[in-house]
Amino acid sequence: MKIKKMNLKKEENKYYQNDRKWKEENKKYLIELQMFFDKVEEIKDVNLRQRVINQMLQCDKVLTEIAEEKFFYCYEEGYQKAKDE
Fold first, then answer.
1. Model confidence over 70-85: pLDDT tens digits?
2. Which of 2, 34, 36, 41 is the most exposed place for a label (fewest CB within 10 A)?
């Protein structure tokens, strides 16, 4: 079955309201994040430390956006399949 493109925008989707609980309440994610910050604290050069943190946060932001796009696509696909049945 081919999935038709829905007119539903991310902003209109109640399941896609920048709810990042899926990430921010994930214990494994929080443990890994804490381990990262513990290691970064050992960097003596303050400028380098800040650049490393900023780059990691930028990577995290991009990865989060990719994951949310995938969640939205899966929701859209499931919604369309259910609607067609």
1. 888 888 878 777 777 7
2. 2
